[in-house]
């Protein structure tokens, strides 16, 4: 018998104890080879796609660099800081305690306290801090002063809270619609939120987005019929108007509720003119779900969408409207599930959809989030807090305001106006407007949530300015 040693060659042939075992071994080898080539093919495809994406990103980045170098944009993105000094500690009033935010921040507590010694910093008085066409502005004419009282052409404070802007192409005029809150603030019951009786939807017109003429109340309250949706004891919030070219009607959507916020519906009204009067049609729970904070968005192809906070404010719902814009279709998507977002403001740039939302903290300000999607129906990715400048508390409170709408900045691609409300729960008619420049540019600072890597779109930035002007 021959002994094996280290110089003996081992056989490399396949040995099988039986036919079944041999077939099993052959199949294993075949599938291994197939799997290898399949993985190699997928890697090749991904590499090509990744190269295409990088090429697209590089192209987009070049556009962004050119865009950010624009002298007007450089002025808008100048970072401005704010320093606010805290007053000495003191006892709070019971009413202020009810307005406490879920995550108390000392400066937010001062904001919510109508007796705060620094309240004038959040709500400057009309004698020293109002602006508008009737004021002697000197070299500051056409400047925005976020948080100060904004006057119309008649010298009265503008009443268009929670509003939105319609650019009427036929007249080349901007129309600003919002809640007309020029009434006393009260609580319907002991634990009820601060409220003002429905007065109606105010409308203002402008050619330059700074000089606003009061066009009156275009949808008024119902004074006597207590069963009517618009009875003064109910709630009308966040009206938005879009124009339907096919029907030649101006269509208004709004949040309709009762004093306890249990009706949770949307309302619809129509008009032949942007200045009304609007005819109220009906209210409903869209898609059979509760609806509170909401907005509408009209896409480039003429399709309009309803976006609303639902399922007790835990989810956003998005769905297309019918061709006449008077109802929703059965199609609906649930997005940002479990994120508790409200106050949606949606806009579009270079075929990417963007949205700014707030957390749900009642009248108390909180941190905004920006989101982006390649399809309006989602999935929507988080882009993080868009606020830049002011100070840390400013950024964590969206400059003590809440989003309501975003409009393109005329003549500057990639730049927008971020519209927000600085709510005053002690006196809601004295709530202020915070309009600031919003710029899309620079790399996103958060990885994708639903895919690998970073997105190809740019980040959203809202820049704080104590005063600024349009180009």
Automatic annotation (TrEMBL):
The keyword Membrane applies. Keywords: Glycosidase, Hydrolase, Membrane, Transmembrane, Transmembrane helix. GO terms for molecular function: beta-galactosidase activity. Belongs to the glycosyl hydrolase 43 family. The keyword Cell inner membrane does not apply. One of its GO terms (biological process) is classical arabinogalactan protein metabolic process. It comes from Arabidopsis thaliana (Mouse-ear cress). GO terms for cellular component: Golgi apparatus. The chain crosses the membrane at residues 21-46. This is Arabinanase/levansucrase/invertase. InterPro entries: Glyco_hydro_43 (IPR006710), Glyco_hydro_beta-prop_sf (IPR023296).
